[in-house]
């Protein structure tokens, strides 16, 4: 291997390492903010879980609040989930949810439910979810009871992710195609979207 | 107050105290088994959270495994949820879920979702849920894909509880009547039950 190849490889390795470090911090922070009250989460604890130094997290993400705002954000998932006209949204929601879960190797919304298991006086995670998912959905719906219907649609989305995770890896949902899941699960969603 | 009245009152107090103690142990144990891996849960920790002595828990419930089997059981909720003929089950599920949540001041099923937030090699809670809820439901369904439809029905039930808890206390779901929730949410469930 020439020295040029070597330094290219070293740079690629360093980039991969930096990426892995960032990914490890994000995962550890998500887990900590989901499972513990905000006040109990420490940068030191996240650093230990991610296998990096606390100062690296501060350098990369800033304060604890800045880190929270970076890692707990439902907007990009909502952007993809809601990217269909209302008449086709039910099926799009199911197909996109399955796709996002595969791409991120985890559920894009479900952590908000884990947070119900703890008593967090700040309930930041829930406020974030309501604002970025439920309220956004309600604003896109027409007809009566838009807010209530948006809450129930959010419920069905959370329920889909919950049941797929719960029955993994040998459940029927793990073996079904996304199309088959949509055939069965989309009509209930579409009915709530239509409000009819 | 006569001495007779006094001793009646004292007995009633002692019974109320015993009931409160049992209730406190059950709550603390449910919380511990939901939020922590089984191996990390200790009788000492549950006792401290419940404000009783570890020996009282052993006396009342037996071993840690016996306590787990007592407090984490979905059968009585399933008995009530599934007590309707298939043609009326969708609406019955929604009304019963709302009623159980009110009666127990908490969701009868949702703790299984909280448990997804932890990595528990034994996943006892999930196995219990699959056996007592999903498989029981699948056995009651006719038509194709009964197991898959049962998983999706379980998902919608979990999602209903999740969204009601998540949007409390000022969400639209908190102010809607059980009948209105059933009007909106039952058709999707009924469609999965019918398998049509």
TrEMBL record, chains A, B:
The HTH tetR-type domain extends over: 19-79
Among Pfam families, the record links this protein to: TetR_C_16, TetR_N
Q: Gene3D superfamilies attached here?
A: Tetracycline Repressor, domain 2
Keywords of the record: DNA-binding
**Which stretches hold the DNA-binding feature?**
42-61
Query: Do the record's keywords include DNA-binding?
Result: yes
Q: InterPro entries, per this entry? A: Homeodomain-like_sf, HTH-type_TetR-like_transc_reg, HTH_TetR, Tet_transcr_reg_TetR-rel_C_sf, TetR_C_16
The protein, known as: TetR family transcriptional regulator
